Amino acid sequence: MKKFRVFCLVLCLLPLCLCVRAASEDASVTSGCHSVEAQSSLGTPDRLLATANAVIAYDLNSDTLLYSWNADATIYPSSMVKLMACLVALENSDLSDEVTVNKSALNLLPVGSVSAGLSAGEVVTVESLLYAVMVASANDAAVVLAEAVGGSQEGFAEMMNAKAEELGCTGTHYSNATGLHDEGSYTTARDLLRILEYALENETFYTMFCTPRYVLPASNVREEYTLRTTNYLMSQDVVSKYYDSRVTGGKTGYTSQAGRCLVATAEGNGMNVLTILMGADELYEEDGLGLDTNYSFTETSELLDYVFDNFEFRQIYLAGQTVTQYHVTNGDNDVAAAPLVGVYSALPTSLDESRLNWVWADEPQSLTAPVEAGDSLSTLQLWYGGTCVAQMELFAVNSVPVSEQILQQQENATAALEGSGEQSESNLLAVALTVLGLFGALVLLIALLLAARYAISRARRRAMRRRRRASRRRSR
To answer: What is the residue-wise DSSP string for 69-84?
Structure first.
């Protein structure tokens, strides 16, 4: 009983620990541009390009959706399928693995299909196949790779679909590894963004994506030869009129059903911009034989002009930089609040600072010691006009223990409770002894009364017997 009373009092006196509500849903997603999932972009909602029917521009450095048009519309993927094919092959094989080209795989391709010139019985490495797919968009390399990694074309397609689901792609399905038209292959520009944001984190994938030319090593049936990129924005080796020095990497695609497609990366203004342009038109020469203009190239350059003319990368806060501080009840000092990681965003180059606004999405009404360094304290958002461009969680920089004065008060209260408990027990014992004493006295008194009554009764009986004997003697 004593221990229970002491425990209850200590619980009442202990200060409440820091309690912060769960961080609110990221407004930079639901009401902003700071995510792949953002439903609004930092840039204009108007259509910028004349022919492309699905467009995205995204800054990989700050995770900012700069521009989007029909981002979630269902489209045919063309050779963008090969991006997923390369990713799945990279994650499920070794670059040095050797593969023998099977004739059955090559027979799947239509005559005139883009190829790297592989031959049945040729032995090549997975690395060579991957470069052939990414640089030259080679369909023969894609089907050979699919068979080697997935066991069959169907098995590899299943692996690609599983990876798409893992990455959160809700509008994508694959039926082959090449992108040759099939009604069962479709995607969205946003799903391509999801795939590329993940894939470009893979160093090998990124290297292949940014390679303008690759020397395919000699094999058992041929000499070495050079593959050149089909992305003419990043190289002048084949066609020079589209070259754009800002472009660092990319992959092209085309079918008559999908139109001209191009994904590319470009650098400028501190940003690493990923562009996705699907379904652009093409213009042929007057004789109808030669391609005069591939609008996927010209419109990607137009899109980059818009991006670099209007946006730039900015650091908002450094990791560990104090943003604010909070008073801590029962503590000797305040607690400083800062983000654990650096906070960045792409913002307009002609920034109107009057449109910037800091909004507390989650802020504690009060804090009570102890507070530990690293405790989550609040959530702060940066809005530019009606768009949330960044959201950051703030954490305690320093610990704030309970003050010595409060601890002393707790100790005194505990000691007082213990002393009170001991005194109560002493009083209880005294009462118990008194009760026992009174009870004993009562028992003794009753015993004496009974003894006296017995003695009186016995004396009366003796006196009666004497009177009877005396009466009998007189009668004689």
So the answer is: ESTTS-B--GGGHHHH
Contact call for residues 227 and 213 (beta carbons, < 8 A): yes
Orientation of helix 126-136 relative to helix 139-150, angle to 10°: 140
| Tens of pLDDT, residues 7-22 | 232 223 222 232 233 3
For the entire predicted model, the pTM comes to 0.78
pLDDT in tens, 237-257: 999 999 999 999 999 999 999
Note whether 18 and 400 are within 8 A (CB): no
Q: How far apart are CA 465 and CA 64, in angstroms?
A: 125
Angle at 422 between CA 420 and CA 426, to 5 degrees: 115
Q: Which of 305, 341, 310 is nearest to 323 (CA)?
A: 341
- pLDDT band at residue 415 under the 50/70/90 scheme: low
CA 443 to chain centre: 81
Task: Note the pLDDT tens digit of each residue in 354-412.
Answer: 999 999 988 888 899 999 999 999 999 999 988 899 899 999 999 999 888 766 666 66
Residues sharing a CB contact under 8 Å with residue 432, sequence separation 6 or more, in sequence order: none
**Tokens (6 digits) for 23:** 């961080």
Cα distance between residue 131 and residue 150, in whole Å: 18
Reported residue count of the chain is 476
- Token pair belonging to 233: 């924005």
Distance CA(9)–CA(413), nearest Å, equals 8
The phi, psi pair for 424, rounded to 5°, reads: -65, -40
Rounded Cα distance between 243 and 92, Å, is 35
At residue 73, what is the residue type?
Answer: A
CB atoms within 10 A of CB 401: 16
CA dist 88 and 159 (Å) reads 7
